[in-house]
From TrEMBL:
PANTHER family: FI17812P1-RELATED, ZINC METALLOPROTEASE FAMILY M13 NEPRILYSIN-RELATED. Pfam families: Peptidase_M13, Peptidase_M13_N. This is M13 family metallopeptidase. The lineage of its organism: Bacteria, Pseudomonadati, Pseudomonadota, Betaproteobacteria, Rhodocyclales. InterPro entries: MetalloPept_cat_dom_sf, Peptidase_M13, Peptidase_M13_C, Peptidase_M13_dom_2, Peptidase_M13_N. Residues 40-415 form the Peptidase M13 N-terminal domain. It comes from Niveibacterium microcysteis. Its cofactor is Zn(2+). Belongs to the peptidase M13 family.
Amino acid sequence: MKAFRLAPLAALLLAAGVAAAAPLNAGLDSAGFDPASRAQDDLFRAANGRWVDTTEIPADKADFGTFIQLRDKSDKEVRAIVEELAAKKQKAGSVEQKISAFYGSYIDTAAIDKAGMKPVKTMLATIDAIKTRQDLAVWMGTVQGAMDTPVNLWVTADFKEPTVNRVMTWQGGLGMPDRDYYLKDDERIAKARGAYEQYLATLARLSGDKHPDATAKQVLALERRIADVHWDKVENRNPVKIYNPMTPAELKKSAPELDWDAFLKSAKLEGIDRLSVSQPSATVAIAKLLAETPLPEVKTYLKLRALDESADVLPKAFRDARFAFRGAALTGAKEDKPRWQKGIAEVNGALGEAVGQVYVARHFPPAYKARMQELVANLMKAYSDSIDGLAWMSPTTKAQAKDKLSKYMTKIGYPDKWRDYSKLVVKEGDALGNRQRSTRFEWERLAAKAGKPVDRAEWEMTPQTVNAYYNPSLNEIVFPAAILQPPFFDMGADDAVNYGAIGAVIGHEISHGFDDQGSQFDGDGKLQNWWTDDDRKAFDALGAKLVAQYETYEPIPGHKLNGKLTLGENIADLSGLQIAYKAYTLSLGGKEAPVIDGYTGAQRFFLGWSQAWRNKVREERALQLLTIDPHSPPQFRANGAAVNHDGFHAAFGTKPGDGMYKADADRIRIW
């Protein structure tokens, strides 16, 4: 059989019509290394220790590092585009005018302050007008997509029929990040809870409530009752548990206290034949709770939720109160984000693909996309070879795994078909109105897809987003343009660091199709078991070992990682790193990698991997992420995957007694 050889990155860059820098640089920021730390003891510290020790988190940040720096860069590039449009008179109703007006209205805080409560009075009046339980259901349906409510709706590919879009319910209605903030007895969480109660009281007082403290306590008590019936984050990771298809008639029978007909009709979903109820017990309990709670109390709760959702486009006292809780108390930030940067996030949310077209033209040359396609192909080949070599999996399941891998769809850079914003109405000087219209516009676009074929050309992220994702129902991996830049990908760097950084990111996303969640979907995106019983048991046993490993990590004293919550991401990190290293090794074609700056190719690969996770975080934000985030903290992502990697131990010659040493027999190898 002919040996497969991956072309080196430099050669591929030249083939794509872009000259690689010569000579190649190591792609490593050695100024951030800690000379007192050995990779054998702590890979993260070795690659990032001096940076961590000497870098101050900016006052407006909750955490700071590689991803945040790239997101700031993307925001500045988008700002330049938006301000360029704003500097010229644009044709009324054009997308350029809409972008300019949307951004300009948001950053004009003087006009927002002058308008006072007037913009939000219409929303509050709709709550005042609720007289019956049916009115309540109508109101909740009307604000879908614009505001979090106790029962939320979404439209996505049906788990069992992935070519058709179906409605899905999801629990909601909480003002704090997660049910744990209401239910756990912990000093830090209790402090956040106190700050939230104070925030609610401030919102009530600013809106004219004569008994703000009592109102805050009442609303917090209602939210606690909602939190009591919510499913936890680990339960919500199980696609089998959250897939509960019903007809509307069946839903009405199981939770009759909510007027589902009125709810669905006002959400533009009248006439749907079925939907999936993600957390059935929570949905039933919430319907009862809304029926049992006196309507005036429910209305007061909705008013404060509406004011919270709108606070950053209301007068300064509201904005300050929102930051005091959502910024300072929850994340530890010392200052609010610059208004311009929040405005860019607002524009990206409302008109993201329109801005993205210009962003791509300026910042994503065609050669970058071609290079990424080559790199993905390399990783896919390495993954296929890896499946062949699995000792714990039977030939039957291997065949199914390779079939799934062969059906992956890859999206790189930007969508082939751009979203149409012609019907979105944007008005000068109407920040809150623009937000309400844009969220309703997006919701109606989403609702219109219910019961119709899935459009596989759509994207869930804009090109200017520094991130990537895997969608199990479409069996696709997606890499927006903004992530393809240093330190993830450097056109002038040698292969090793690029494979360790962007290669591992690609491998990570590929691996999500084979993590504890994604592995329950087949190659066509259907939720169905394609494993033999013995293979699934072997896979679950490996996952249990990974859970146990990560639950030894303690980012905050008294708070260890939730290994079950982070399992999918930890599998993807471990497997992505394994696959990226195999792809890098294959790319060498049997030759020795050059030594650059004193590091071998293998050492540069792992240092590049660790460097990509450079980050530091405030304690409040760390607590929040430990509660809600399925990703492990960056330092444990860097070390937790590498400690199981044979290549890492060989590259740095680890020995018993080293901090990163792990005996060969104890290393966890999944994909």
